[in-house]
Model the fold of this input.
Amino acid sequence: MLSFKTELQLNNKQQSKMAQHAGCARFAFNWGLAVTKEILDHNKTNPDIPNSY
Done:
């Protein structure tokens, strides 16, 4: 397997945008995780009641 390691040379404005993007991605991931956990917990405690999601 062949791989390449790349380092970006970002200026301050680009670094800020990359940090904002990472924060937004983390927020979306955590939101999806919370929804999934909520559904799983609901299914565990109420197996006969379907979800309304």
